[in-house]
Amino acid sequence: MKGDYLRYLAQIKTGMRGKDAGKSALLAYKYARSIALAELAPSNPIRLGLALNFAVFYSDILKLPDRAFRLAKQAYDEAKRSLVGWGRSPSEKAGCFWHIFLKISAFRLNRTSMQRTTHKSAEEETWSLG
């Protein structure tokens, strides 16, 4: 949530305030992602939501649609692999719900991949922390 809040600030603020909010959002997203990868299953809704929000940050704030696509696709692929063998009945570990969620995510990924144009290299990142 902290990353999302700071992303919203980065969208509306200008100059150094916007840039500072963007840098803080990047740190918050990276920290949250490290915890999610260590503590949550790939199909966990919080982990998936974080990945998608972080992807939006990369796309909309940092203007790195390729990196956004890779992050979202990685989360999608990991979640899909973790659900193999779950069965398809709605009562079986809510597998049906996640199957639908993954289909929606796949649609968004496909749409995003078609909309991508040129990408910036890592050296061109506006908000590099290095």
Automatic annotation (TrEMBL):
Family annotation (Gene3D superfamilies): 14-3-3 domain
InterPro entries found in the cross-reference section: 14-3-3 (IPR000308), 14-3-3_dom_sf (IPR036815), 14-3-3_domain (IPR023410)
Transmembrane annotation, as ranges: none
Domain (14-3-3) ranges: 1-83
Taxonomic superkingdom: Eukaryota
Name this polypeptide is given: 14-3-3 domain-containing protein
Family: Belongs to the 14-3-3 family.
Pfam families, alphabetized: 14-3-3
